[in-house]
From TrEMBL:
This is MerR family transcriptional regulator. It comes from the Bacteria. InterPro entries: DNA-bd_dom_put_sf, MerR-type_HTH_dom. Residues 23-88 form the HTH merR-type domain. It comes from Jeotgalibacillus marinus. Signal peptide: none annotated. Coiled coil: none annotated. It holds the Pfam family MerR_1.
Length: 105
């Protein structure tokens, strides 16, 4: 799974919502973490209700908004006395959970 373009057909006058889906390997490279670390973060985030894209084989794919979310979690968890679990809960409270969708390609 390399870059896949998905047109959400939710275009406004000012913004094009075409999204790019990247593999877990590409996402881990973008975040600068090993793939097992990204997998662990994704599992913890999913336990809080976020659903990441999965292909027919069950492999996760990440949209750029997912990568931004994980990056914010990583940054917050680097704050003294903030655990990864606390960071996940805090960041997820700030995002619109209505956008959590599963898309199977």
């Amino acid at each position: 799974m390399s870059d896949i373009f998905i047109d959400t057909k939710e275009k406004s006058d000012k913004q094009d919502h075409t999204m790019i889906l990247v593999t877990a390997k590409e996402a881990s490279d973008m975040l600068g973490v090993p793939n097992p670390t990204l997998r662990k973060y994704a599992q913890l985030i999913e336990e809080e209700g976020k659903i990441f894209h999965r292909n027919k084989q069950g492999h996760r794919g990440f949209f750029h908004e997912d990568i931004s979310l994980i990056k914010r979690i990583m940054e917050l968890s680097n704050t003294p006395k903030v655990s990864i679990d606390q960071a996940i809960k805090s960041v997820l409270q700030t995002v619109d959970t209505s956008v959590y969708k599963t898309i199977v390609l």
